[in-house]
Amino acid sequence: MPHATQHADVATAELDTALRGGPFHVALRAAIAARGLPLQRVQHHLSRHGVKVGVTSLSYWQQGARRPQRPESLRAVRALEEILQLPDESLIRLLADGDERPGGRQPATRTYRSLLAASGVLEQLLADLDCSPDAGLHMLGHHERVRVGARRELLGRESHHIVRAHRDGVDRFVAVHHGDPGCAPDEMTARALDNCRTGRVLRDDETGVLVAELLFDTRLRAGDTFLFSYAIEDGTAGVSREYVRGFGPAGGQYALQVSFDENALPVRCHRFAQHSAAAPRSGRQELTMTGRHHSVHLVEPRVRSGLVGIGWDWE
């Protein structure tokens, strides 16, 4: 079987190179390929080691869409070293190197791949809540206030909505929060503020996505308008560098305000827009911070499909 032997030699060589230089996801993918294990078998071996990791998470790890960061995930990586017959600390070392490598992926910036991974998870979470993305509502106005704390972390946000129902019987809205990489969704909370109450809350640890069902105190008829607000408490990740809001269909006015702790002020802030998560950013505009309240803002008189956000530099 010369072809099989040659293929095995190539796979081993690729694994050796990846283990020396990384990055982590390339080394993990090479190790799984070299052992010839499907992800379902890898998951089975992990469960025998007392570690629970989903096939989807393993797929994200080897694609580079997510990095294992939580304690349970790091236990899984150490178990993978044994399962895949790798030297001790070989994968863990690459994780540590990836956090420090100049020019590498910034730990608190949402990349296209992380957004793509989160979008797939979001679809499943919405399906679990038996909810469509628009929930039968058109946005007329949305004012969002984001708070950044003294540790430069995303503390949380408040969202105030003005909506109009486009069908009868609408009695809820599903809020979506995508935390910064390294966040702990289990420690986040969703809190109803005005004209609603909190229902079911679902979370996905690997993508940092939280969805919260906000139940209205009335059933809307088509054409009815409604005002409600809620808050998400986060503060579980590291240094935050931007906040991004995505929109599907065109809608009404959107205002985003980012407020900073007086003991942790960025050196620059700017707005940006994207037609999609895969598209280049455009419309960059420097924002001036208010002196007394340490905040910057943007206003979109009529949102278009795509993404809009505010980014900031710490030094």
Automatic annotation (TrEMBL):
Superkingdom assignment: Bacteria
Protein name: XRE family transcriptional regulator
Species of provenance: Streptomyces broussonetiae
Lineage of source species: Bacteria, Bacillati, Actinomycetota, Actinomycetes, Kitasatosporales
